Amino acid sequence: MKRIALVLLALCLSLPAVAERKKSFGDLDVHYIAFNSSFLQPEIAAASNLVRSKTQGVVNISVLKAGTPITASVTGEVKDLVGRSQPLTFRQVKEGQAIYYLAQYNFTQREMLRFTINVRANDGVARSFDFNQEVFPDE
Fold first, then answer.
1. I need a labelling partner for 82 at 20 to 30 A (CA). Which of 6, 62, 99, 115 fits?
2. What is the pTM of this model?
3. What's the pLDDT tens digit per position in 7-49?
4. Distance from C-alpha of 11 to C-alpha of 136, rounded to nearest angstrom
5. In angstroms, rounded to a whole number, what is the distance separating the alpha carbons of residues 119 and 24?
C-alpha cells in the first residue's frame, strides 16, 4: 500500500506545476487532482480497486489541518459543458499517516469537466469548491 501512496504522490508531482492544486479554508488545506486512470500502473490500480480505462478518470483529494492529514467526509459531482452530471463516490484510503479520498468518473471525449467538491472535516463545518479539468481519452 505504501507503493500506491508513493505512485500517486509521484503522479501528482510529475504533472505540470503551473500552480498548486489546493484550496485553503483557514488552517484547513484541501489538495486535489484529477487524472486519467490509464496513467496508473495495473498493479497500483488493482491494489486501489480502481478501474484502468481510457475513458475513466480518478479524483484524488487530501485534507490537511495545519499540515497534518485528517479524516473528512468528501462528496462531489462532475459536470460536462452541457450540464450532464455524475455523482462522485469517494472512498477513504489510509497509508501510514497519509489519508486520501479517491473517486472515479467517466468521460467519452476530449472535454472540459467541472468538479464540485464538498468537504466536511471533523469540526463539522462544510466547505465546498469547484475546479475545471480538461480530459482526454487515452489513445
1. 62
2. 0.83
3. 444 444 444 444 579 999 999 999 999 999 999 999 989 988 9
4. 17
5. 12
